[in-house]
Amino acid sequence: MLNIVKSTSTTADGCINYNPRSFGIDHSSNGWLIRAANGERTCSLRDCHFVSGQNMTLYDHDGSVPQSEYSDRHLRISGDGEVNDNPIEEVRLTVPITDDPSLPVLTFRTWVLGILSCGLLAFLNRFFGFRQNQLTVSSVSAQILVLPIGKLMAATLPTKKFKCPITNWSFSFNPGPFNIKEHVLITIFASCGASGVYAVHIIAMLRAFYKRSIHPVAALLLALTTQMLGYGWAGLFRRYLVDSPYMWWPANLVQVSLFRALHEKEKRPKGGLTRIQFFFVVFVSSFAYYIVPGYLFPSLTALSFVCWIWKRSVTAQQIGSGLSGLGIGAIGIDWSTVSSFLGSPLATPLFSIVNTLVGFALVMYILLPIFYWNNVYEAKRFPIFSAATFDAQGHKYNVDRVLNKETFDLNVEAYNGYSKLYLSVFFAFIYGLSFATLTASISHVALFDGKNIMEMWMKTKDAVGDKFADVHTRMMKRNYDSVPGWWFHAVLVVSVALALYACEGFGKVLQLPWWGLLLACLIALGFTLPIGIINATTNQQPGLNVITELIIGFLYPGKPVANVVFKTYGYISMAQALAFLSDFKLGHYMKIPPKSMFIVQLVGTVVASSVYFGTAWWLLGSIKDICDPAALPEGSPWTCPGDDVFYSASIIWGVIGPGKMFTKEGIYPEMNWCFLIGFLAPVPVWLLSRKFPKKRWIKQIHMPIIIGTASSMPTAKAVHFNTWGVVGIFFNYYIYRKYKAWWARHTYILSGALDAGIAFMGVVIYFALQNYDNFGPNWWGLDSGDHCPLAKCPTAPGVKSKGCPVR
Length: 807
What we know:
The protein is mostly helical. The protein is about 55% helix and about 5% strand. A hairpin with a 6-residue loop joins strand 6 (about 160-165) and strand 7 (about 170). It starts with a strand and ends in a 39-residue tail after the last helix. This is Oligopeptide transporter 1. It comes from Citrus sinensis.
């Protein structure tokens, strides 16, 4: 151990004098003299570090001595007088530089609570994914909920050690107090369950929309391999994207802060509640309230007042409908309306909320009315807001007329004799904005962050090797064994082999040939590193869904299942790799043994994929007419809004193909200009930020967010944006400014508790009532829509649609 002596001098014989102000520590005008306890020169010590504050606590150079007191500001000093900490200030101010390698990690508590959290969140998220108001239960709910359970297990489970026969291995149900490392691993388990399994959309599309069968083994392999392939890419690039101090993954700092807050000793404030008590109060309230919008009064999810006033006006209902129109004046009194599609606004920064609402207003209140009421692309033949596909007569496109029943691909002759594929002008515009979002993300990052990214990448190449300038990387390499590369490679080889078997076997129901799978893997491999660098430094992740759909749509047209399978292997395996790397970085910051992280992620992915598949397979087989709103009984929530959009995409990009949609052969070739428009959109903002560098608000104009707002539509409707925006601005502007202490203490916990309460009540309602076809009392408020039936009507003269007046 070392002694710290306060000094008024600037130099000392045999010692090094540091001024805390030079490191941003506003503690004293004098320096702190670092001296060895035995009087030796400080510079003879390899590494020493201290934290600021009135009571200074010292550690050994490896950071393994537990600290008794600390503050948020800390730094590490090496013998040559240089700061030996992370080069990113946000990391220095958030992540502790201490570690206790003796803490148990893969304990009985970790396995039990982790697997239960993973399985439960996977079930809930897939269960609610088929419902009118989707709900995503994030890992934050589990992160908060397991803390008191873990402490209860530590207080009650027996501490006796059990020895395994023949071996020297032993274990205990209760190895000691519930610690932060166990908590991190349980949260990683939970995040596997909360992150979703994209391939399940393919299963739902085949069974519920195309009414075709798929072997359950093929479906399960599809779900597993699309999730597992990412491990291979993660293993290849973890050296650069995890070990490098310059790849800092900003989103993880929120998690680190929350872990520290939950594990710091907390006293109940006078007249207030602890964080855990607050969580349970909100959880119970949310649980009790959801019986109203979830069963007794479903219409509360979307209140469109304009439609109540003008009951016979198509135009008024198009303007006022929150689910099928522009949503002016529409609102929802239901937390699932707030967070179901756009995520929790409580955890979204204010600048992001404002950019999102600006993008929404531009699309819904300026561009869409101009396009629709000027009848661009014969817009009035179709509903103003719809994700469906149509023929030239304004009727729903009968895809069965253009599909070969035996080969399940496009019958060109039948297509030429039927009709070209039409979209609502809104849906066509959404695809154009998707093109623009991709190029806008590239140019925005290049203009605003390109220089920093290149500097960090150059430093990363210098840092990755035997010498590491970052305290966290050096500590991890000193205290723990890294994951052998062959672990990742083995998972990659097995995943590719099983994916080939799923695609080539089972009657080739997935349609994708072997070369298509390998091309998808090549695309994912090529994009993982560059997009990973962007994600790790800017918290942005440009998606590959448009590019992958476009590539396979041209190379292999007329194959709807092949198109979505290619997109899933090419896009999702890369996204999964970045999710794995982000979790590895979280473990890096929290000093979790890498092998333990790998094992937890691997098991969590297998559990989550299996539960997602099992839940979807069960619901698709047990709920009659699931995903068919026209055939479902009144009040039934099983409308599958996300799967409906996925199905439409398979028709557009797969059955018909981009060659017959976005070229001269199709209706929408002008949408290709959106690639150029998106690429140029960030340039004026960048030029203004250079001309007026002191006006910080200019840099917060984020064109990829503004343009990309539309990417969550039409799954997310106007009522969701309205309600989300009101709640987000109220909390992140008004509450944040006026009651900042309350906001900092309770906001994330409030969000997680509201999600958890709705999730559990939703499951109770289903198993207790809806499972027996009891969807609620038969009255006006039972309708899960918004009582705007005319909003879905076309307005072109002579076009007939069921339930609509003919003009």
